[in-house]
Amino acid sequence: MESRNPAFRGNAFGQQTGWRREQGLQPGAQPYMYGAPPAAPPAVRPMTLDDVVVRGFLTLATLVVTAALAWALIPVELAVPVLVVSMIASLGVWAFITFGRNAKAPLVMAFAALYGVMVGIISHAYNDVYHGVVFQAVIGTALAFGAMLAVHALRIIRVTPKFTRFVIAAGFALIGLMLINLVVQLFGGEDGIGIRDPGNPLAYVFSVVAILVGCFFLLLDFDSIEQGVRHGAPESFAWYCAFGLVLSLVWIYLELLRFLSYFAGRD
Length: 267
Known about the structure:
This protein has 267 residues and is mainly α. The chain has one domain. Helix 2 crosses helix 4 and helix 2 packs across helix 8. The N terminus is likely disordered.
């Protein structure tokens, strides 16, 4: 089953090399796209909800610990270089996990650790200017997680192939706009295209949309977890689920951090 989260889009239960071999799938066979994933072979223990909970907790805890250490230990003069290095390194691990279809525990934990350093530095910078905004963003992220879990459990929004395509397209569109905004800023446009300028109403709209899309990604994650447990995905898929959940939560947190800063007074 192809994950509906673009963080590991292209990874399928049946695309893991050893698993494909056991199932008798040929290298050129059409991968599974949507619907019920194939059951795990008898030799592989199927994934349970507890597997996802434990791995998700470990991944998120690693990120929080490294974020706290980066906040407390990295001096101001080294913040930017360390931020750049952690961003590049985490992007490299993300790409290896995503395109290499290899979400093993060491890689996912390494990604969480590197990503946590980046999150810690960014959070510290925001808190220095807008005191208390980090705590508000953390509470907001927790509330968003709880709300989306309730929405999924009550089937208020159903995850269909059409909904999945819409969310993934919206996510890539937002990332594309962020990159365009960055390029414009680098080439002399101080405010870019306005999507990150607090004085431009477009920035508020962009942040709200980005937060909503992050919440929709959580719905895709919950659906992937549910489908994996229901149809006997291999235990190893729990690491993909943990990886996707952390990406979605950090997306929401960072967008909430920026959005709340628009209304916070500078210290």
